[in-house]
Model the fold of this input.
Amino acid sequence: MDIQTHKLIDLELCGKPVHLEEGLSRVKMTTTDKMRVDDSGLVHGGFVFGLADYAAMISVNHPNVVLGGADVKFLKPIRVNESITAEANVIKKQGRKRNVQVSVMKGNEKVFEGEFICFVLDKHV
Done:
């Protein structure tokens, strides 16, 4: 299955797709020093959110998909040079609206979870 959206995204900053099928995606990222916010190597949560958002977008996989909202929880901190994987599942379709459940894992440990509300538009914004 080919990716139909977010074709110019920076894979280093938002992750690399490793699995895609209808309504499901998996995106993996290894955090880098560019994402560091302090001397302890803590990674800014925006990068974790970006990974989850990208996974949600490609699980919908439409050229005109946009994010309408998200209800998320950051469960554990992430540090530089850690590998994390986002899995996104479309759990509900209602007209143009898609509810997507996303979990981010570091190994067997869940570090982030959320529901993303996506919309498929008739034309690009």
Observations:
- Strands lie at 16-21, 24-30, 65-74, 83-94, 97-106, 109-120.
- The longest strand covers residues 83-94.
- Residues 74 and 112 are 5 Å apart (CA to CA).
